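Write out the 3D structure for:
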Amino acid sequence: SERRMLSAAAQAWLAKTRSHFVDGAEVPAQSGGTIDVVFPGTGRVFTAIPAGNAADIDLAVRTARRAFKE
């Protein structure tokens, strides 16, 4: 498997559930969905990332605007 080529630390990081990083914190995708990341050498799924949507973008933009006002 592709993960055997990685360090133990990298494998552990990939095994964790990923989230968006908004306003200094990990925030799960509001849809709860994920997108598969495919290893190009084999075409197999390597890991998954959160599937952001308009609601996730709105949250990120609101918090960024607030940060610039502070």
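The CA atoms of residues 30 and 54 lie 9 Å apart.
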